[in-house]
Amino acid sequence: MVEAWRITGQAEIDSYVGSRVELAVQLINSLATPHAHGRGVTPPPPGADRLAAVVAAQERLTVHPPASVLTPADADRLAGIAARLRPLFAAGDHLLDAAAGLNDLLVRHHAVPNLHGSPANPLGLSFHRPDADPVDAWAADMGTALAMVIGVGQSARLGACQAERCSLVFYDTTRNASRRFCDLSCQNRAKASAYRARRRA
């Protein structure tokens, strides 16, 4: 089985980077998306509901970030970070502006390559300092991972659903970066809508 972050024939994105991009996708879709699958959605309100959404988003990942005790205030900060990361997906002609915002986020959350480890655990590369609080750590890791995807010329893989009234984002791991929809249900909705339009014409 080919891991989700390996892109055949393209510059390779390693597991750590791929997992942090997926974390960004989950947080954006949970906390900063106004439409999903043809319906308007209301992001979770601040407090316990928003924290529950963050925990649920984390549980949907195949590779989890380091265990952290998050608070409702942390979840509120992560919602703001998700909103700031969202413009990087399907940025198109606005990529330079989106990248400027990403650079600001990297500085604000003290992103820095750092080897973490202990006598009992092997050293591993992270993008945050060992003493970073959980929100800064997640923001630095997600931001750097997205910067690495963009930096190797793969920004087209940061996509947004093209179905009507769906603004969910995704990380495209197809061979030729041809994905256009968040999932099969939106793809089928778009096909049905196009078919009806042709019939009317």
Features:
two-stranded antiparallel sheet, mainly alpha, 46% helix, Jann2411-like fold, 201 residues
How would you sum up this structure, described in words?
The protein is mainly alpha-helical and 201 residues long. It has one domain: Jann2411-like fold, CATH 1.10.3300.10. It has helices at 15-31, 48-59, 72-85, 95-108, 134-151, 184-200, and strands at residues 35-36, 39-40, 114-118, 121-126, 158-160, 169-171. The strands form 3 sheets. Strands 1-2 form a two-stranded antiparallel sheet. Helix 1 runs antiparallel to helix 2 and helix 2 (48-59) packs across helix 3 (72-85). The radius of gyration is 18 Å and the shape is globular.
C-alpha end-to-end distance: 44 Å
Rg over C-alpha atoms, rounded to the nearest angstrom: 18 Å
Supply the number of helical segments.
6
Beta-strand fraction estimate:
5-15%
Mean pLDDT: 89
Can you tell me the CATH class?
A: Mainly Alpha
Q: Total number of β-strand segments?
A: 6
Number of structurally distinct domains: 1
Strand order of the largest sheet: 1-2
Q: Going by CATH, what is the homologous superfamily? A: Jann2411-like domain
Q: Quaternary state, please?
A: single chain
Succession of helices and strands = HEEHHHEEHEEH
CATH architecture: Orthogonal Bundle
Q: Runs with pLDDT <50, length 5+?
A: 7-11
**Residue share in helices?**
40-55%
CATH topology tier name = Jann2411-like fold
Q: What structural class do helix, strand and pairing data support?
A: mainly alpha
Write the layout of secondary structure elements.
Layout: H1 15-31, E1 35-36, E2 39-40, H2 48-59, H3 72-85, H4 95-108, E3 114-118, E4 121-126, H5 134-151, E5 158-160, E6 169-171, H6 184-200
Antiparallel strand pairs: 1-2, 3-4, 5-6
Helix pairs in contact: 1-2, 1-3, 1-5, 2-3, 3-5, 4-5
